[in-house]
Amino acid sequence: MTNSTYPIGTPGKKWNNNDKAQWLKRQNIKRSYQNEVVTLINDLKGTLNIEQYGELNYTAGTYPLYILKTPNFNANKPTVLITGGVHGYETSGVHGALRFAKTSAMQYCEQFNIIVAPCISPWGYETINRWNPDAIDPNRSFYEGSPAQESAAIMAFIKSLGTDLIAHIDLHETTDSDNSEFRPALAAREGTTNTNWNIPDGFYLVADTKKPEPEFQKVIIESVAKVTHIAPSDENNQLIGVPQEQFGVINYAARDLGLCMGFTDAPYVTTTEVYPDSPTATDEECILAQVAVITSALNYITTSTKD
Q: Which of 77, 109, 142, 223 could form a disulfide with 70 if both were Cys (CB 3.0 to 4.6 A apart)?
């Protein structure tokens, strides 16, 4: 599919409200947030603290939003935020966050306060979607007065804590459906032409241009390489049309673009990009790659702050 053949809208014109309503009618529930995500959150009662930090209210449905926290929060410990499912269709982001919470979070609770928000966009999870029901991308909406309920809710919660973060790790995927659906839909919505069809074959990281922390990113890449393959750059030394800074790493202007990883002042930030559509990838491998990112990041910060 190309943006010129996308079935909604008029080529060259931005979508109006009728176009967005037509798009929403085409979306349908494909899996259950309650059964596949909330039940796993509830399974961790007694180990981690569970808090409801908000609720999404759409005509398309109402969704409670949950975070998991390590017990005994202490203002003297550095605080780490892990987010998944900002794009609900990126499955290993959700389940990687939950797997880390289940298997590894308590191993780090002496050194860190850890907050895990495993599924920022539950409607997107259920409909396997990049956008929310308003045809808004939450991961371009992390700014003051956000039009996305999903982004606004987690930002408000983190602000309410009144604590600085040392790290924020945002778990994502790059999928073949970016080309078959989401890039054409974006071009149609904006009345533009999509020119980037690059899908890297493997894992990569997106660092923040203003605080790239290259050694931090390098350590994560080395850890993930033991689990899944790292994406090589294309013939232009680029990934998704962006210059590669080092093997498996590109930089984005996170705050300027309204990305999730850019909404805090944490010095250590990264966005993961797992490639689940690789012929060699399995669901489990993708989940373990996300966990490897988090644990290697925390190990690096622990070592660096001791030096």
A: 109
pLDDT tens, residue by residue, 106-124: 999 999 999 999 999 999 9
Can you give the residue ranges of every domain in the chain?
3-306
Q: Which CATH number fits domain 3-306: 3.40.220.10, 3.30.110.70, 2.30.40.10, 3.40.630.10?
A: 3.40.630.10
- Chain segment 201-233, per-residue pLDDT in tens: 999 999 999 999 999 999 999 999 999 999 999
Q: Give me the residue label for tokens 């966009």.
A: 121
Q: For position 213, what pLDDT does the model report?
A: 98
262-275 pLDDT, tens digit each: 999 999 999 999 99
Give me the torsion for CA of 1, 275, 217, 226, rounded to 10°. -160
pLDDT, position 105: 98
